[in-house]
Amino acid sequence: MSIKEDHSRFRDIVKGKVKENFKKYVSQGEMIGKREDEFVKIPLPSIDIPNFRYGAKQQGGVGQGDGQQGEDVGDPGQGQGAAGDKPGEHLVEVELSLDELADILGEKLQLPRIEPKGNKNIDTVKTKYNGLAPVGPEGLRQFKNTYKQALKRMISSGYYDPVDPKIVPIRRDFRYKTFKKIIQPQTKAVVIYMMDVSGSMGDEQKEIVRLESFWINTWLKKHYKGLETRFIIHDAAAKEVDENTFFRTSESGGTLISSAYKLAQQIIETDYPPNEWNIYPFHFSDGDNWSGEDTRLCIKLIREFFIPNTNAFCYGQVESKYGSGQFLKDLQKEFPESEQVLLSQIENRDKILDSIKDFLGKGK
Fold first, then answer.
1. Domain with 134 in it
2. N or C: which terminus of the chain carries fewer CB neighbours within 10 A?
3. Would the pLDDT of 314 be above 80?
4. Statement to judge: residues 157 and 195 lie in one domain
5. C-alpha to C-alpha distance for 169 and 166, rounded to whole angstroms
6. Are residues 177 and 197 in the same domain?
7. H-helix or E-strand spanning residue 75
């Protein structure tokens, strides 16, 4: 079996382990803290491969020392402490790309592919380098791999002299980058996250939003390369912030949800023409609003602006013991079974997967 086949088989095993424990990874967020650009390090229980291990030298016994036939191998040890009732667990960190995680998420939740709107009939061609070959244009020759091939050949043939290590590549040592052309639709997308940061939204509620937004982004990036994100926080007033501030800010005072919707509308009208961009507004709150009048204004904004100009308007209600939860009830009454207004109740971390399905399961 080749190294490539071994590696492919190992990746399949890793993906199987991630799928098996997927809910745990989503709700606990172990992998999010180990994100590096487009890759995530995932802690997995290691699989021990059988091998010989050397133990402490025993006293006497056949096969070592002066042991005689019939002699005891040794006395039982006198160790202290009770025997454990759980196996030891050794963790190994395995790297997966966000693209691979998106595939696992889509398979686990049976998510449909997104059909982007906008310039989907205009294609862009990208070059992806994906391997090595013994032939190719000289501009793509890989010096390091060519040198390694020449070194292996000279060592195996007995011509390598460590005292005078001259490595002379010949034609069959040459290695070249290989590439393929990838055609992608020219589509652009932005996610606008809005979150209530009033006093009733505690650390646990914000952590749920953080975990869910990571997986939402992971899935959308699968369909839109170069996805943009914007962040709005609000209590009685709204402002745009960076990602770190979004998940760390706490405020006190009342909640005026329409302030966030008005700011999101302003951002869209200024920076993201709806005929060119796929737009995804996500709002997270515990469902308290200042007044019924403001809720009616929010419904008006959703109906008259967000529905016509975005792929879908998504509202997630994070349960809090301090929140009334009334806003979700009002939206459910106004937009029953809507294809454009997607609503989700997130009672705790275990409901994050269900909520992602609520938002992304329509393929919008």
1. 127-183
2. N
3. yes
4. no
5. 10
6. no
7. none
